[in-house]
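agent> Task received from the user: take the single chain below, predict its 3D structure, and emit structure tokens. No templates, no multimer pairing.
agent> Plan: (1) validate residues, (2) run structure prediction, (3) serialize to tokens, (4) report one or two observations.
agent> Step 1 OK, no nonstandard residues flagged.
tool_call: predict_structure(input=
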Amino acid sequence: MNLPLITHAKKHNKKIAIVTGEDVFSYSDLLHISGLIATGLLKDTEDLQEQRVAFLIPPGFEYVATQWGIWRAGGIAVPLCVSHPRPELEYVITNSGASIIVVHPQFEDILLSLATEKNLRFILTSATLPDHVTTLPNIDIQRRALILYTSGTTGKPKGVVITHDNIQAQVTSLITAWEWTSDDRILNILPLHHIHGIINVLTCALWAGAECHILSKFDAETVWNRICEGNLTLFMAVPTIYVKLIAAWENDTQERQKTMTAGCEKMRLMVSGSAALPVQVLAKWQNISGHFLLERYGMTEIGMALSNSLHGQRYAGYVGQPLPQVEVRLVDENGELVPLGIPGEIQVKSPGVFLEYWQNPQATEKAFRDGWFCTGDTAIVENDNYRILGRMSVDIIKTGGYKVSALEIEEVLRTHPDIQECAVVGVTDLEWGERVCAALVLLPERQLTLESLRSWAKGQLAVYKIPTRILIVDELPRNAMGKVTKPQVFELFCSSSG
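)
tool_result: status=success, residues=498
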């Protein structure tokens, strides 16, 4: 067995690896159970030889042991999202060509019929494990390890293929930059079908010999209770979660707030990512926790690429500089490097960049230029730090000859006294090319008209950046990571009159 993750785990044999509620599991437990799972998966074969194994298991020890078991048996892990409806699960299983499905009993009714229809091997996590670990195959780190499905801005999601070598590069880069050690203790509240939870939290922790405490689902009160215990050293979340934690803090007693703050202050690092962090959320969280959140930039295809400094100056709205082993450049529409201070598309080159889109060579070829991965995100470098302007296709709006950032407009709109949340998109318009449109969630018992919003915004935004259409909605459409899905916001405007 030559998987670095397993080699590292063996160094921490008796140390705590995973904690789920009252249950505590050591690295020795994880190695033993994952070895038994690998043995069960292999059955009568010596090596799964990159067979895809889809698994639907809530975050917890069984999830981790199954993931490791798949890898140790030579399979490709295809994690499924526990909140996805059956059609989406079926798409991933079918597209990945999974031959084995491993399922927690609570999801048996959802996937058993599918496995039967497609003649797939179906394994429940409650099934009896083998008596002992058989000889497991040697796994070259160049092998495919993981297929994660992107949410996709158009068409069906694509399977992003990540090798063991990619995982090693992504993890070691973060461990170096954020100075992970075996003394660290982190709480995972993120979905484990996404790069953020799988790599940044779970795999970094286990690679470093640290403790990973796992919640099966997010609950603000439970998270605060855990923080108040005062023994966590790191915390990573998306902006939506920080907003919910802030709301819970504001609704608690002053005495309890002091305990919450004290728990945060005992941590060495708190990170935000996967979506733009509103400046006012950063400021509120700093006031509550004493932490100036570290923002970073990454995506499924590349892992993490940019990060604010662990010890140095951090800037609100910026994602810092390239991480160790990562090269980043900004280019114009012709692929030429842009001058300093001019926006350009982010392109990335590193050993952590994914291998391919699963069975989609055309999309893979289109995604690269001269060995650089084209992210489709636009950024600008200011004072040696990168600032993300948004997606080229979604968050960059071309209106009346101007190129404007939807994120910039959203940042301003969120400061309106009646607005709780917002999402800005460009909607095709014959006269302007695109019109700036804003979907708004208002605070309780508030009202807002387009005229009053435009009047208010004139003092803060150039006239061509001010929305010309608004929709008042109860909530914004989001994906499983809590990120607003702009294509669905766009559709809201297309389906409404006006």
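agent> Step 4: summary for the user.
Residues 121 and 353 are 31 Å apart (CA to CA).
agent> Done.
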